[in-house]
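Before we proceed, please read the two lines closing this message. Report back on whether the structure tokens fit the sequence:
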Amino acid sequence: MAKTNELGLTKKDYKGAPTTLCQGCGHNSILSQIVAACYEMDMLPEDIVKFSGIGCSSKAPTYMLDRSFGFNSLHGRMPAIATGALLGDATLTGLGMSGDGDSVSIGMGQFKHIIRRNIRLVYIIANNGVYGLTKGQLSATSEVGLTLKKQGTNELEPIDVCLEAMASNATFVARAFSGDPKQVKTLIKAALHHDGTAILDIISPCVTFNNQDDSMHSYTWGREHKEPIHDISFIPARDEIMLEDFEEGTVQDVVMHDGSKVRLKKLDRAYDPTNRMAAVHIIEESNANKQLLTGLIYVDPSRPSLTSILNLPETPLNRVSAEELRPAKDTLTEINAAMF
């Protein structure tokens, strides 16, 4: 018999439909760790609500937690939908999955404001530095000098998700690499415990479009076959790149399928994630050294969430009856009188 958690549920109870993402896509690894974290934390799937925008990463609600309600929103608009739902029922645990295009380009304004409001939401950005769903355009996190097929060379400075989160006064900021499942799962668990918006920037290689030797986000993608009648792209199956455990405070080079390397640096255990200025400094330092800093970069458990600020009642707003919400006649008369 399959192993069960404290709720008597198996890991299968936390899964969704079979993924249609490319084999070897880092997004699949993230989804696996979300499933594992919720299962191991004995979370009832019905108490979790899923959100996403548009893009490869935003197909996530289909591939996980099929017993949970979910909402696949418009491009870049996931934070607004999540805000409304989580204020409507503050008893639910919010889990949003987005991408660098969905959140850092068209959705930047919404990204900044949900952080400012500190809604209780685990906000995962599967960051692959490319628009994968629309055939491989450069994204706002693509590094300077990156050349993509048919897209030219990026000459603009990239946006650092974690730095933007810090500038917006986020209360939880972390970064991970999808090929380090142990760290990804640990950070997801920490984020699920956070009373506020938890930003997780997870570098998630695109095996199809972002395949340059000097890319900081990619695995390689498959060679293209041209047929006499059709223009066909063939994406061969790839094994996901997984890491062995490496010590805190050390640097490790990860070899991609095409022979290129991504350099990771794991935060030292002695690092204090509650020091805001130190967090900003260490992000800048890692960028200058062309390193992808991973781990819990910053956390502030003292700042109240929007739910606490609004002092919402114990009964979820979406369960309050019309009679309870409707002001009494005397109250309306008093309000109207005050306007004159």
